[in-house]
Structure formats: C-alpha cells, structure tokens
Amino acid sequence: MSSYRFRRDLDDSAAEVWRPLDRALAHWVRAHGGSAELAAVAAWASLADGLGDAALPLRGEDAGRHGMARLSDAALAALRQQPLVGDGSRRTPFVLDADDRFALWRNHADETAIAACLRQRRSAADPVDGAAVKAAVDALFGGDRTRRVQAQRMAVAGVAGRRLFVLTGGPGTGKTTTVLRMLLLLQRVQPQRLLIQVAAPTGKAAQRLLQSLRQGKMQLSQGEHALGEEWSAALAGIADAEAPTLHRLLGYDPRRNVFTRNRRRPLAADIVVVDEASMVDLALLRALLDALRPQARLILVGDADQLTSVAAGSTLMDLVAALEPQRAAELVRLQHSFRAERELVRVNEAVRSGDAAELDAALAAAPQRALLRPVGDAAVLAAALQQWALQLAGSGIAGDDADAGDAASAALAALRRLSQRQLLCALREDAFGALAANAAIEAQLRRHWQVAAEALWYPGRAVMITRNDYALRLFNGDIGLCLADADGSLRVWFETVDAAGQATARWLAPDRLPLHEGAFAVTVHKSQGSEYAEAAVLLPPDPEQRILSRQLLYTGVSRAKQRLQIWALPSVLAAALARPIRRAGGLAAKLRDGPAPPDQFELF
Ligand SMILES: Nc1ncnc2c1ncn2[C@@H]1O[C@H](COP(=O)(O)OP(=O)(O)OP(=O)(O)O)[C@@H](O)[C@H]1O
C-alpha cells in the first residue's frame, strides 16, 4: 500500500483528541499490514492508556469511551481475524480478550502477571498458632474489644500466615496504627528477626508513614498504652530508619527504564509494606511483585476510594473490587474514623458514595463544620481568595509569637498553624487553578504584611517542595515555611521527627531548597496523604471540565479534619459526584476469575 493511501484512510478516521503518540501507533499498524479499523482502535487504546485505562472495552455499557464510536459486531469479528491481534495466549501487539476488551500487549501482560502472582500469594499460606495470635491481638489492643476496633483486630489477626494482605480505609481510620500492630504481631509470633521494609509511591507518603510508625512505636513503648517487656524485641525490630519510594526500593534505572530488583535479584525483605497503594500503577505493581521473594509477605495499605495512579491501572481499587465480594480474609476495610468530626465523616461518606441528596442533607446538618460556597466566576473567586488570605495573615504563620521558646519550637508552632488551613484546587493551571490561586493569596499577604516588591522571600511564605532530594531529606510535597531569625535572616523550616520520635522542625537557607513552588494553594492530587484542620476545595466553574470526578472530590473533602468549605457551583458539584472514575481494564476480572483460596482460619 502506498504511503499516501494509508495516510488518507487514517486521516478519515483520525480523531482530534489523538496525541502524536496515538497517531504514530495507528501508522505503525498500517505499515505492518493491519486494517484501517485496527489502526483506529489501536490509536484509541493508546489514548485510553494515556488516560489511565489499561484496556478499551469494545462492547457493553463501557464501550465508546473517550469519544470512540462503537463498533458493529461484524467490525469486532473482523478485528479478531487480524494477525496483529491475539487472544492473549501468545504474544501479539494487541490483545482482544473474551470479554471484548482491547489492550496493548504491555498492559495485558502486566495484568496477567499480577493476577497470577497475587493468586499464588493468596493460596500460599504459612502455618499459624491460632492461640498465640489471639493472645497477641488482645495484648496489642490492650483488651479493647469495642466495635470501633473490630476491623482493626481482624486485620491484625488476619495478616498472620498470609503472603498478601490488603488494608483499605478512609482517612483517620487507623490504617497506620493497624499496620504497626500487624508488624508487631508478625514479629512476635516468629522466632527469628524479620526484615521489614516500608515504602510508598511518593517520597512524602513514605516519610509520613515512617513518622507515624515512629510515633506509634513511642506510644507503645512508654506511657499508658505501653506494651509489656515481652514486646520490646518486636518493637525494636520494626523498621523506622528509612522508607524509600517504591522506585528507589526497586532500583529503578531511568536511563534504561528498568527496575534492577527483579526475580533474579529479589529484595531481601521478609515483609514489604506499601502505603498509599491507591497511587500504584500496573507496571509498578508488577515490578514490585517480581522483586519479592515468594515467601515474603506483601501488605498493601491505602484508601481504595481516593484518586488512582497517574499511569494506567487502578490496582488497589481493582483488588478491593475483586476481594470484597468474595469476603476474602486477606482484605479488611476499616470504616470507623478516629480523626475527623462526625459531621464531616457523614459528608465524606456521601461524596464517596456519590449520593447528591445525602450530601445536601449532610452539609445542611453541619452548618458549623461545612460550607458550600457557590464560586463560579472570577470576581466571586477573587473575593473568596481575599478573605482566605486575610484569615491566613491573621493566623500567626509569620512566626510572630514570642512565647514559643527556642527557634525550632517556634517554627514547629508556626508550621502547625499553617497546616490548620489549606486551599485545594482541582486544577493546577487556569484562572481557577492552584498556581493562580496561590499567586492571588501571596499578593494579598504581601500587601497585608507590607513586603517589599522585590523580596521573593518573606516571613510567612509557604512553599511546597516539588522534587525529591534524598541528600537533603526533602521530598516532593513537603511543606516549608519561611521565618525570620532573631537577627532577621530568613530560614525555611520543615517539620520533622527527631530520633526519639518527637515532632520538631529543621531549617534550610532559602537558596538551598530543591525545586519548589508556592504552597498556599495546592492541587487535590498533591494533597493526597495530607490532612488539615480546615480545607477549602475549589472546583472549576465548567461542569464539563474533564478533571472533575467523584474520586477527586472525595480526596479533596476528606482532607478536612474539623471544617470544610467547598467552593463550587452546585451544578459543578453535582457533575463531579455523578462521575466516578471507572478505569477500564481487565485486572479485576482476572483476579476474580481465578479460584478463591479457602480461608486459612477465622479468628473472629
Ligand atoms: N484503635 C485505636 N484506638 C484509639 N485511637 C486510634 C486507634 N486507631 C487509630 N487511632 C487514632 O486515630 C488517628 C488516625 O490513625 P492513623 O494515623 O493510624 O490512621 P490512618 O488511616 O493511617 O490515617 P491517614 O488518613 O493519615 O492515612 C490517630 O490519632 C490514631 O492514634
């Protein structure tokens, strides 16, 4: 076929939304003998992959995603006959499975490998001394058998003997608290010292996990909740020295785009804990599973209802969707929130389930805690931002309290005040995005504090680190606050935890900071894993805006512990609620279709 012919028949079907990469794939298909129809479907699958879908459903209610026209039965049958398309049993560039899902080979292979690995992990169980586990669980919960800790107890008991465990739950439901007790239990019932590795998809999430584990260990080592002397070896065995990102743990080599930890060079760890697992994409989960020794235990922890990974896949959501209906013992969902105000828990729950009427009722029932502010145009937004900035200006974040003691304590107090209030934006760019909102807030603060126009830094300026710097121990998402020293020199302070597990602050000179940007307004995506006493969630005014989704709204509103503002037009709020992200892919089905291993034992 002439190059003219295949360019022309592609141009006929090419969609405006296709990216250069999608078009290139379409041309590749034509150059390798594929039909024009296959070339178009391949381009759509490539686009869908870029938007997070591991596969493109070609039939059923999910067909026609991203604007692709539905295929007739005859067209579907013709696709199956194409030599470049297989059913997944042998390597072909594209796979069209029995459920009419079309996938790039890479995604199909990742899903298949993950499902097989997880099935194997589920069926491989180690022997467990049930009585010892029961006694340990009682000790770890100080005899607390109330309803609010039932699920936590089930999780701690359930992890014994298992090589895969999934712990999911909303914010403040005690995931980290439970993970610490799981690790203690595993260490306690095992004669030899276990090598425990904790990690997370982002540097910040990894640091947060480490800090929580340190604080939890402290609480269990001394004070009213201290465990007995017999637990001291187990407590000492809980890793709290370092928590790398998953990429670092797996030895990612960006030049070759490979992980150096793999089946041939597996991780030495006996237990690997991954926090914020909702952010783990397909390729990363596959790499992690490849790098685990068969007998090692994998504990995945996260909130399955939050935003998923940027790259293709929704691994935690799929795992939960597959395991929950089976009432699988390797999955526990924590539901009791220990942290947020009850009225906000009701708001979160309404958003999580996408129930608009219940959200209205929950907001109406919590006038002191939650506020819906119809922000729909530039003038209303400017007024809201001005008010927000003035509240910030008066909140003591510039470190102007004399009673706080030494500089680190004063800085810690100011950082805590800063974390009382955070504006979260659905968008980053745009007039309603985080960059513009941050600029507006900073302009107001500068006016209020009479900062010289040429001064980039001033006391009270908050920044967010945007690139991991292991040498400086600063991670993407860390918040720094600029404060003036006694002699007037400016330092940027960060919260940290000292060796004894106590919160403190440390500083860097402004010119030593890794890449950063203003932090008075951040995107909801960036806020994942953080919480604030008060959060305001700003949505763009266009209900059709692609970014709007139920998960985005849930992730945003659930950051608030005491007070919540939603800055959005009611129509936009309704649009977000009505749009759950359902990433298309075959992982949930592949996980479900495998035989469910029998429960090893039931303690509760
Ligand atoms: N069983 C429990 N008894 C008493 N307090 C608890 C219990 N479990 C958790 N908490 C408290 O609830 C708060 C939240 O716990 P934790 O940080 O473990 O939750 P999380 O689900 O990991 O939260 P995040 O949203 O930060 O991921 C903490 O202050 C913790 O001490």
From TrEMBL:
Documented EC number(s): 5.6.2.3
Keywords: ATP-binding, DNA damage, DNA repair, DNA-binding, Exonuclease, Helicase, Hydrolase, Isomerase, Nuclease, Nucleotide-binding
InterPro entries: Coronavir_polyprotein_1ab, P-loop_NTPase, RecD, RecD_N, RecD_N_sf, UvrD-like_helicase_C
Annotated ranges, domain UvrD-like helicase C-terminal: 519-564
GO molecular function: 5'-3' DNA helicase activity; ATP binding; ATP hydrolysis activity; DNA binding; exodeoxyribonuclease V activity; single-stranded DNA helicase activity
The UniProt record lists the keyword Glycosyltransferase: no
GO CC term (a single one): exodeoxyribonuclease V complex
Domain RecBCD enzyme subunit RecD N-terminal: 15-99
Subunit structure: Heterotrimer of RecB, RecC and RecD. All subunits contribute to DNA-binding.
Miscellaneous information on this protein: In the RecBCD complex, RecB has a slow 3'-5' helicase, an exonuclease activity and loads RecA onto ssDNA, RecD has a fast 5'-3' helicase activity, while RecC stimulates the ATPase and processivity of the RecB helicase and contributes to recognition of the Chi site.
Entry-linked HAMAP family: RecD
NCBIfam families xref list: recD
PANTHER family for the chain: DNA HELICASE B, DNA2/NAM7 HELICASE FAMILY MEMBER
Known role: A helicase/nuclease that prepares dsDNA breaks (DSB) for recombinational DNA repair. Binds to DSBs and unwinds DNA via a highly rapid and processive ATP-dependent bidirectional helicase activity. Unwinds dsDNA until it encounters a Chi (crossover hotspot instigator) sequence from the 3' direction. Cuts ssDNA a few nucleotides 3' to the Chi site. The properties and activities of the enzyme are changed at Chi. The Chi-altered holoenzyme produces a long 3'-ssDNA overhang and facilitates RecA-binding to the ssDNA for homologous DNA recombination and repair.
Name under which the protein is recorded: RecBCD enzyme subunit RecD
Organism: Tahibacter aquaticus
Organism placement in taxonomy: Bacteria, Pseudomonadati, Pseudomonadota, Gammaproteobacteria, Lysobacterales
Gene name of this polypeptide: recD
